[in-house]
Predict the structure.
Amino acid sequence: MNKTDYEKNHRTCRALRTMLADDLYMPQPPNEYSRLLSSLLQQLHSIQGAYRKNKTNIPFKTLSVKQMAVVDKALTKYNKWLTKDSTDADFMSNKKQQMKKLKSLLSLTESYYKNPMQLGSEKNLIWSMIKQLEKRNK
């Protein structure tokens, strides 16, 4: 491994960590695909650590071509998912309409329920939906 491969792997590791940490994109609890990507990330980290430790051009056991193809495909899908909303004109208008509906629903629930226990659970549900919409603004 040389320095350019090290830097490429470093960028790949950073992008993969970002993708795996995104709660909106990756399912919780993790499925088999996210576990696969996590194990590939661990392998990349171990390769990077071995290179940093030795700083030589000794050929390290690296990821196979198929494994790197899986990582590259996952990163391209994630980048498309991140940018699809900024290119979609309908997304912003739909988001505004949904926020408006949720805010009106919030005011309706306050006037409808007299029992404070029911009001608390309804309010929490609506606020969680609003937070989800606010997160998705990329």
Remarks:
- The chain has a mean pLDDT of 81.
- The longest helix spans residues 89-112.
- Residues 3-87 form one domain.
